[in-house]
Amino acid sequence: MVAPVAFSKVASKRPPLTRVLSANVLLVTGLGLLVTFTRAAWIGAVVGTLVVVALRRGHFHPRPLLVAGGALVIGLAIVLIGGSAALSRSGGQNSMLGALYSRIVSIPDVSSGTVAQRISVWRDTLPLISSRPITGYGPDTFGLVYPSFQSVNRNGILWDKAHEDLLQVGATQGILGMLATCGSWLRSWEPFGVAATCMELWHFSVAGSPIRLPTR
C-alpha cells in the first residue's frame, strides 16, 4: 500500500524535499517487497501503482515520472539479467538473484507449485460455501470443515485458510458476510457509504459477529 503512494509523490508536482523523502520510502519498500519473495505482494504493488497513475493522471511532472518509471524498469532488468546469469552458473540456484529470478519467471505458471495448489483450494471452497450458503460455518472453522470437501490429497498439509479473502468470508460467514465485505469495499466511494453501513449493521444483527475486513 505504501509503494504506490510513494511512487505518486515521487512523480507528482511536489516540493523537491518531499520527492526525495518519498524516493527513499519507495526504495526501502521496494527492497522489502523483493526479499519477501511473495508474488501476490509484487503483483499488488504493480497494480496499485498503475491505478494511482491512472487516477492522478495530469498531476505528474513528466521528468520525475519518467525517472521513477525508468528506475523501476532498470531495477527489474538488473534482477532478471543478474538472476539469469546466476542460474547459468553452477550453484546459482542458491544465490539471492537466482532465487528472485526463478520466483519472478514463475508468476505466469499456474499449473504447478503453490499457485496450482491454491487454485485447487479455491475450486474446492465453492462447494464448501454452497453447503451452508447463508451464514457459513462460523469464524476460524475453515480448517475443520475443508478436509471434507478437498478433492485431492494435500500430502498431510492442513489448509486452515482459503487464501482468498472473499472465499474465506463466504466459507466462515456465508453470503451475508460476503455482501457485507463487498459493502465495506464500496464504502470507499461516497455514493455507496450509506448502503455499505446498512449492510454491515444487517450482517452484525443476523450473524452476531462483525465482518472480517481484508488485511492482506
Question: Which terms would index this structure?
Answer:
single chain; 67% helix; 0% strand; mainly alpha; 216 residues
The helix/strand order is: HHHHHHHHH
Integer-rounded radius of gyration: 21 Å
The chain-level mean pLDDT equals 75
Major β-sheet profile: none
Give the % helix.
Answer: 55-70%
How many helices in DSSP terms?
Answer: 9
Distance between the termini: 10 Å
Q: Label the structural class.
A: mainly alpha
Strand content: under 5%
Poorly predicted regions are 190-196, 201-216
Number of domains: 2
Shape: flat
Counting copies of identical and different chains, the oligomeric state is: single chain
**What is the tally of beta strands?**
0
List the helices and strands and how they pair.
Blueprint: H1 2-11, H2 16-36, H3 39-55, H4 62-88, H5 96-105, H6 113-131, H7 142-145, H8 165-186, H9 193-207
Describe the fold and architecture.
The protein is 67% helix and 0% strand. By secondary structure, it is mostly helical. It has two domains: 2-105, no CATH class; 113-207, no CATH class. It is flat. It starts with a helix and ends in a 9-residue tail after the last helix.
In short:
Helices cover about 65% and strands about 0% of the residues.
